[in-house]
Amino acid sequence: MNLVAAQKGSRKKRVSDTAAMSAPAYPPPYNPYASAVPGNMPPNMNMYDGRYVLPPPYTASPDYSRIHPSFPPADQGFSIPSQFLNEPLVANVAMQYGQALVGSGKQLVGQELEKYVPFSRIKYYFAVDTRYVTKKLGLLFFPFTHSDWSLRYEQDGPVQPRYEINAPDLYIPTMAYVTYVLVAGLVLGMQDRFTPEVLSIQASTALAWTVFEIIVELITMYITNIQTNLKTLDLIAYGGYKYVGIIFAVLLSILFHKTGYFIGLIYCSMSLIFFLVRTLKVQILPIGTSPSHHDPYMHNSGNKRRMYLLLFVAGIQPFLMWWLSFHLISPPVPKS
């Protein structure tokens, strides 16, 4: 029996030794929050390190490096893998999002600027071509040969200037203003009176008188309570056509001196008055207005006020043409 007992004891020992030797060493189950527990934090990890924004006991970032090899260890911080950004799908999504963001930003900025500066309306006045500019200049110099002064309209407003010669534009007045300043510099240089300061004064003075003219016309329309189809940009366009006549008169003065200047000034003044009266008559005195059934006197009074406004806008142009150009022809008398 002792032998049997000894064999059984030895057999149990051998079985346990074999089990102990052959048992695999499995790692404990992975817990992603194990590194966030203060007791399990490595000795070199500071709980209050600025990289970990969660309050205790979750002050450290979980270690995702065991899940996927592309993720860095927890003690190195989190960063997006570079191969993830190089994916075509991710790049296309990011590009589309950026384009949508930029487009919405431009639209928002455009809407805010449109409240103060009507860019869409200004584009209408610069919708011209070479054919329109040529015909318009001919109309300014020879308005007596023109017969149809009506202005065509579309559903959303008047026809663009390139398709309607009677429509106002800002291209010719702008170019005429710049040319007027250059011609003034040429004449002053021929008279040995040119300096950069004088040229800048010439440009600012002409611009100031144009602004003053528009303000006076707007105040007159407001005080007299005249309702017309004219807009502020229309008044600027019609008032800027006088620079075409000024340029013509000043250039004639180079060849024929004062005689040529006054001949050109008188002719251009008459042409501009005729042009403005026939053009503004359609806008200020629209055809087809019927008198009021309640008070015909108020209708007649309104027509008179409109006529006075028409004559004022057209009649002030010759004076401004002379005021902005006579000093270029008559140099100051030197003091003895």
UniProtKB/TrEMBL annotation:
InterPro entries listed in its UniProt record: Yif1_fam
Subcellular localization(s) per the UniProt record: Endoplasmic reticulum membrane; Golgi apparatus membrane
Ribosomal protein listed as a keyword: no
Residue numbers spanned by region Disordered: 1-21
Membrane topology qualifier: Multi-pass membrane protein
Known function: Has a role in transport between endoplasmic reticulum and Golgi.
Protein name, as recorded: Protein YIF1
Organism in which the protein naturally occurs: Cryptotermes secundus
